[in-house]
Amino acid sequence: MATDPVCGMYVAEGPEALRLVRGTRTYLFCSTACRRTFDNPEQERRSLGRRLAFGLPATAIVAGLTYGVSAVWATGIVALLATVAQVYLGAPFYRGLVDALRHRRANMDVLIAVGTTAAYAYSVSVLALPGRLPPALYFDASTAILTLILVGNYLEQLTRTHATDALRALREWAPPTAHRIDGDRTSEVPLAEVRPGDRLLVPPGERIPADGIVRQGRSTAEEALVTGESRPIPKGPGDRVLAGSVNGEGALEIEATAVGEATFLAHIGELVSESELSRIPLQDRADRIAAGFVPFVLTLAVVASLGWLAFGRAAFPIAVLVFVSVTIIACPCAFGMATPAALVTGVGRAARQGILFRGRDAIERAARVDTVLLDKTGTLTAGHARLADVLVEPGHTRAEVLGLAAGLERTSTHPLADAVVSAARAESIAPVELAEVTARPGLGLEGRLGSEIVRLVRTSSGRAASTPGGSMSARIDRWLAEGATVSVLERGDARIGVLVFLDPVAPTARAAVAAFAADGLEVTMVTGDTKGAALRVAREVGIASVRSDATPDEKLAAIRELQGRGRTVAFVGDGLNDAPALAAADVGIAIGTGTDVAKEAGHIVLLSSNLVDAALALRIARRTVAKVRQNLLWALGYNAVLLPIAAGLLVPLWGFSVYAVLPILGAFAMAISSTLVLVNSLSLRWIRVEHRSRSSVPSVG
Quick check: is 375 catalytic? Predict the structure, then answer.
């Protein structure tokens, strides 16, 4: 059975159910008011504002005349204002009552409509039948109750708007138009007319309208909202761009590859929407309570009212007030909203950081995690090599070694080539012009400088070990023990230098490990790399437990071993060989820089390469589930305490005089109850994991 995304009440999934289709998803609602609120929250909030603009002064006038003036004309004005209030302020609740009767499923509007109508109708009956009923008027109660409930609804709208900021921003971030290139001219067209394959011009400072590939121009793109990546990303020919990101200082010509609902931005919105409506086991109990709550309250109201009338010697007006108090003070919305309110806020907070929860139970799974397994390459490290050291034989210079190496590497596509060329450029060393540069598969590169042969020999050839020893042999051995890759530069038959490459630790890896530890999680590195390479990274990031030389099968075995000991395991990885481990873990966390297959296997996807986001994702999940529990406890406690009071628990202490204030106090309590659930959930917006530098320990927010 579905739940209303606004109030959380159960909705029967029959053909007569109120529906709204948005994108590829169909939403069901318990009332037209909830559907309007979901479809156009701004319009609904303006409508509430107009009703309150009448209701607040009307309530003040009614109360002032009721208790301050006893003239007949004052009673007439009070009755007139109360009638307008009952019709105008009560209209949304009466529509909800009609919806409930049509669908044969009670909602919150039933209690409000029935309770306020009872107070109003009795007061009208007193005026219409003078002398036949006890002369008590409750126009002030019916008017004040409706106004207070609308105030609560208005507060709910405001807090709900804050809670859904991230999702709304995602939906609205794609621009409405695009600059399409047709031959020699460019025209502005609606985004709906753009098709894959179209050439689009993106001027500086404008949002990119579609996913695509840069064909001409160079610029940067601000992708923070889309991927969570805080720094502008350089873009040039061949680079991928994403709809919704903001172009930097240069114009770009892109070829659209995906538009509209097929874009990465739309996919994010769909995942966030799915997470918004996720159901966790805690919600099932709340839903069962909410489904039977309204009939229970109506039954309690009738029994309490008739009971005091028949056995408690209460006057008929008091019995009416008992009925009104019970129906008004109840708040089934608090049960229904306990999970959605927390989920929409937690998921929205995660989305702003580029964290996506995939699957209906991903959040609760993540909340139970107590053990984190981290892959090394591409997760704890940057995933690409940098030049860590240049060892130079006596009689030669660093500039000579780097210049010759860069001359060999500058046309190479080998993963280490860019590290060499970049290092030479950073030191203002020009690549040496070499002739006849060729790649020798399995060996390295070879070129000619005058009559001499210059070779750059990769470690994989085994030449590093066979090269004659000397002063640097011990240093080479130490680097190799730490997992470094070594390339030997030879000029003629002599070794003149050795280039050492390391995959550097990711800038946020140490902060992420510290954040896991601060949250009480056990952290282990599991990698297929060598023991030396694994221990080097572990020392740098602060991990004590390491499993090295692990094949994909051994990673799976490590996960199952921990699960067999009762641990709830999260695995964080990015590569193709990580997909089985990501799927087997209780929670798979896929790093955004990884392969598509790894992302598909993950229960949580990090759109950026920031490992701290993995710690933040688990923290958001834990806090979100904690908020759900708090909300449910509040809803249970509120109704458990106030319903007996409304039914007459205080009568033995203070007599029936308590009903002079209980209906209005009950309206205030009910109106504020669901607002408190939203406010409590709203605190999830400020969950964070801070870090100051690569070597710092993060402060926990």
Answer: yes
